[in-house]
Amino acid sequence: MKTHLLKAAALVILVAFFANAATLEAEMAYYLESGETYSLENITASGASYALIKISNVPSLVLNSSNEVTSASETINAVAEAYTQAQMDTLRQTTGFRSLQTDFDPVYAEFLICSESSKSVLDPIYIAMYSAMYSGNDPLLTPAYNDALRTTPALQSNFSDLNDSIARAQTLSGRQLYDELGSMVTKVSAINSLITTYASATSYLRTYFADDFSIPAKGIFRYICHLNSTSLNAFSSDLGIRTSIPIASDIAVQITNATNTRTPKANQRKIVAVLAVDYNAEVQRAADAKSRFPLGDSILSQRQNDLATTFQRLNSTNATGTNSTNDLITAFNYSKNQLEQAIVKYEQVYPNYLEANTSVLATEQAMQVARERFGRNDERISSLQTQVNTLSNEFNAAEEALRTATANSSQFQSIQVRALNLTGQITAVQPKESTIDYATIAVIAIIVIGFAALIVYAIKFRKKPPQAASQPTAPSSSGEEPEYR
């Protein structure tokens, strides 16, 4: 039988057990309170192997071959029965059980001699005669006779019954043996209550009739009885084995009760062990997130600290109270979810933030180049600068929101699009002297065209000679109309 001491260590240590599937030590760690010890006995019952766990030497749990605590009544009953039988086989070999007969026999034999040697003294004829002779002068004689007459048959009955019980006990076990030994305890108590009176009465009668306390056929004369209230002390001590007798039904009830009592806390400790694995994973994940998302270092550290605090509170309780532990589990899960949500937020938004940041920086750089090239007084630059300032302010606000994990991707996507558009507008600005004024060109074109038309008209006007006044000629015979020049 192996004995173990498990102090309620931090449940982070249990993670090692948990990761190693179900070892017996790992399973037991969930079921023990601080400072409790346990031992185990390997039991074969109904053709299967089990471990009976004794906590503080009390049968309390049954583990199957997979090191899982079982609450099945048929299994617990079978294990309790097998354990009882094994214990009885061991008990029969103990000094106490083997000494029952040997420690009783001398006392019983002494009583039989005492009883037989006093027969003549307690003969009714002699009692009547001697009482008439001596009781007038000795008021104690008759009470002594009466006590001896009353206690002798009672002692004979109890001693005889006790002798029979010892014989029966050799073949009994479990509840029957327990009850038989209990009967022996009762008989010993009865004998002890009688034997003092018996010894006192026969001792007083011996002062008168010492010669009559004899068994001539056995060569016993003037016998002095040695029985007293301590005669059965050794036998009574042997009866102490009664407390060691295992009773299958009682043990089964004991195991069932212990299992039902310890299982709720054990289940919570298993949950905490799983949460410990989650906690370690979250700590690693948070560290990775802080290295990838520097802007979120503050809020991630804060939420990681909150998670550490709730886990430490949960871990330190060791499931000492089911309700309070449930509250702490809820608090831990809340802190864990808060940290996870922040990490997910950064994983989703940070790429958009970086792209927007790059685009805004490019816009600001383009704006700086344009200011240096065209000057701040250029109305085009002033207008674009206002837009750039607005964009930068919006980006800074979104960046601050990202520090607390409250920004979203759409904010940075919108900023990036606007930054790209502004950058395009800024880079498209040209010096004023190299720009084309289409209105001016149109006016000039109109003037040129008008001036050209005037010149053409003037030239044509100069080529036509002045004509003298003349009469029209008579129409020709051909019918043509007269020609004027």
Describe this structure in words.
Strand 2 (37-45) and strand 3 (48-55) form a beta hairpin. The protein contains 14 helices and 4 strands. The chain has helices spanning 11-19, 24-31, 73-91, 95-117, 124-134, 141-169, 174-209, 233-238, 248-292, 297-317, 322-374, 379-403, 409-427, 438-463; strands at 2-5, 37-45, 48-55, 58-63. Residues 5-21 and 468-485 have low confidence and may be disordered.
Which features would summarize this protein structure in a list?
485 residues; mainly alpha; 3 domains; four-stranded antiparallel sheet; 14 helices; rod-shaped; disordered C terminus
Mean pLDDT: 86
- For the record, give the distance between the C-alpha atoms at the N and C termini, rounded to a whole number: 153 Å
- Please compute the radius of gyration using only Cα atoms: 59 Å
Largest sheet: 4 strands, antiparallel
Give the % helix.
55-70%
Number of domains: 3
Estimate the global geometry from the Cα principal axes: rod-shaped
Q: Strands of the largest sheet, in order across it?
A: 1-2-3-4
Number of discrete helical segments = 14
Count the E strands. 4
Strand content: 5-15%
- Low-pLDDT residue intervals, each spanning 5 or more residues: 5-21, 468-485
Summarize the helix and strand pattern as letters: EHHEEEHHHHHHHHHHHH
Chain-wise SSE layout:
Blueprint: E1 2-5, H1 11-19, H2 24-31, E2 37-45, E3 48-55, E4 58-63, H3 73-91, H4 95-117, H5 124-134, H6 141-169, H7 174-209, H8 233-238, H9 248-292, H10 297-317, H11 322-374, H12 379-403, H13 409-427, H14 438-463
Antiparallel strand pairs: 1-2, 2-3, 3-4
Helix pairs in contact: 1-9, 3-9, 4-6, 6-7, 9-10, 9-11, 10-11, 11-12, 11-13, 12-13
